[in-house]
Amino acid sequence: MEVAMNDDDVLAYLKQNPKFLHKYSNVLEHMETPAGNLGDGIADFQKFMVDKLKKDRDEALDVQKQLISVARANMDIYDRIQAAVLSVLEARSFEEFIEIVTHDFAVIMDVDVVSLVIEANEPGIHRVHLKGVRVTAPGMLKKWLREGDGLLQDNISGSEEIFGPAAGLVKSQALVKLQVGSNTPLGLIAFGSRDPNMFNPEQSIDHIGFLAEVVERCIRLWLQIPA
């Protein structure tokens, strides 16, 4: 059986629960509020609602600014990826291609070092004598990437296994797996930055992953390796 409540019941309840409107402030949006001078000791609901609307507006503006900032950052990355792709397409030899990836990419992508790492049993694998290409023992990718295709890390100390003499510069990194062909050694392309917050696990790896796929295909074409 429902019990009807009157005004006195509501007032009594609110007095017994003084924090009710703090907890359920959205109820004020559905209430008509008094205007004018309410006298001492009487809460001005209208002012409360205005303050709440201002707070909501400020929060909405903050969200909008964050979205704009993220959109600008994504556009900047998109432009850099485009420039990097166009640069490798202009390579006139495989040696020049490697030079572009391991040197020009660092400038284009605004990082401090870019490295190509290949897993191999023998150090004499075809063309790995090229500057900027490092050879490591099999298992390196599994150690760093586990079962994934990429890794973003912040606030780290760079690994010499990946970045060689430039490892001391690296405080954040992006590692992406390279699989040029089904019968070729695995590898990775590594981007290292002295900015400890340049890369972090919360970021998406899609843009750099796309660039890694372009590098894979270019190596396949230059060395005439089947997919």
Offer a concise description of the structure.
By secondary structure, the chain is of the alpha+beta class. It is 45% helix and 13% strand.
Number of helical elements: 7
Total strand count, please? Answer: 5
User: End-to-end span in angstroms?
Assistant: 75 Å
Q: CATH-wise, what's the superfamily?
A: GAF domain
CATH C-level name: Alpha Beta
What is the domain total for the residues? 1
The average pLDDT is: 83
Using the coordinates shown, work out and report the CATH topology: Beta-Lactamase
- CATH architecture, by name, is 2-Layer Sandwich
Share of residues in strands: 5-15%
List the helices and strands and how they pair.
Blueprint: H1 7-16, H2 20-23, H3 45-89, H4 94-108, E1 113-119, E2 133-136, H5 140-145, E3 150-153, H6 160-163, E4 172-178, E5 187-193, H7 206-223
Parallel strand pairs: 1-2
Antiparallel strand pairs: 1-5, 3-4, 4-5
Helix pairs in contact: 3-4, 3-7
Salient structural properties:
alpha+beta, Beta-Lactamase, elongated, 45% helix, 5 strands, 227 residues
3D structure, described in words:
- The chain is of the alpha+beta class and 227 residues long.
- The chain has one domain: 2-Layer Sandwich (Beta-Lactamase), CATH 3.30.450.40.
- The protein has seven helices and five strands; from the N terminus they run ααααββαβαββα.
- It has a five-stranded mixed β-sheet.
- Strand 4 (172-178) and strand 5 form a beta hairpin.
- Helix 3 (45-89) packs antiparallel against helix 4 and helix 3 (45-89) runs parallel beside helix 7.
- It starts with 6 loop residues before the first helix and ends with a helix.
